[in-house]
Amino acid sequence: MRFAEPMLRNTARALRRQWWRLRQAVDRAPFDEHFYLAAYSDVAAAVEEGRVSTAYQHFHESGASEGRLAFGSLEPDLEEMLLMAPTTAMVYLELTSRCNLRCVYCPVSQPGYVGADLVLANFDRFVEVMHARRVQIVVMNGHGESSIVKDWDAIADRLADEGFRLHITTNLAKRLTASEVSALSRFDMILVSVDTVDASLLAELRRGANLDTILRNLEAVIGHAARRHRDPEIAVSCVVSDRSALGIAALVDTLLAVGVRKFRFGDLVEYPAVDGAMTVRHVSTLSADELADARAQFRHALDAIGARGAIVNVDPPVAAILERIGETRLEVDVRTPDTATKIVRFDRPLALETRDCLDPWRIAFVHASGEVRPCCFYEETLGQLDAEPLPDIVNGARFRELRRGLLSGELSRSCASCNARSLIGIDLLRAKVEEYVEYEANRTADAPR
């Protein structure tokens, strides 16, 4: 082993030369104290506590050898910026996951389902957080019916007084009080869940619903809003199934006549049949003759909506079947996220495709349990309000990873099998995100403090 000694001497000489060159580089390097303290919080703490005299002393004595930078830019690179949400434009507050109806296609009707009410330990503080996040819209609903929560109308009035624009999805199935009508008249958008104007079919599909009650409530809200010189957007959400598809034309004609100006046709997610209740199936299970009839009715509905200058949103699987838009390549995903198995039909992304979705950048969905997710369809929890503040959640690791997946096309299961968002090229979504992030960053910078 006599060869080892010269080798060690050579290594030592090389290390000494390397150390000398490093010291010379340190002595000559420009030094930015502001950058150094901002980049290295441990050094800033050491200086503040007097353990190190100056930032430069730290860099000169140990920082350089540790590989720390003497100067540079504090600006994050573009890739990291695109994973962040400068603001939260919309917050969903699920006041409750309980409901006064038992729709046959809803998980609320499944055995073992347990609802809950949202508890915010400090509501005033949460309002302050929403202002700080530059929230514009508060959506006062989730999977339950907000109007069955005690004092929900007072909560709505408080949020409206704070300057938030209010949206809600409601079944309007109970007789509204004067206070509730007044509160609803302050909303910017009211989305009413109605699948058909066939009163007997509605009662079977949405057990507990009464068409006359819904229409009377709608008339009262529209009238009260008009007296306050307000014009809320009245919209309707229809779950398209084998039962409701053959009455779509009548639904649209009737509701256009009472002032509805926006329609959403949602795709049915199938749950196990409920004992003693009507069975509903996906619209794709219709016979050839029934499907031809449904398509004709849907064309009539779209023409009528267009003629009134109203707006329509159609879930991609419904459009693929009833409008025959593009090649139909629907696949089936069977999942058991909660208490019951559900079947979702979706259009699988191809190479270089992703979901056309900005929700993880725009939305925080606060469930009645306190869980935070990016939308009402996403099944994984990305944060818990009683453990982390909202700003930390929406820009935390799990939200950023979700955004990274959308930008790369490496989608989570919930996103890959989503039936509510269409497909788009990865490059096109990236361009949308860049534009959105830049706009929101500027909006935050320009807003008064």
Write a structural description.
By secondary structure, the protein is an alpha/beta fold. The protein is 42% helix and 15% strand. The protein is built from 18 helices and 16 strands. It has helices at 4-28, 33-39, 41-48, 55-63, 78-82, 123-132, 152-161, 178-184, 199-205, 211-227, 248-257, 288-307, 316-323, 359-362, 390-394, 397-408, 413-416, 426-446; strands spanning 90-93, 102-103, 137-139, 165-170, 189-193, 206-207, 233-240, 262-267, 311-314, 330-335, 342-347, 353-355, 363-366, 371-373, 383-384, 423-425. A 10-stranded mixed beta sheet has the order 9-8-7-5-4-3-1-13-14-15. Strands 2-6 form a two-stranded antiparallel ribbon. A two-stranded antiparallel sheet has the order 10-11. α11 (248-257) links the parallel β7 (233-240) and β8. α2 (33-39) crosses α3 (41-48), α7 runs parallel beside α8 and α11 (248-257) runs parallel beside α12 (288-307). The termini are far apart.
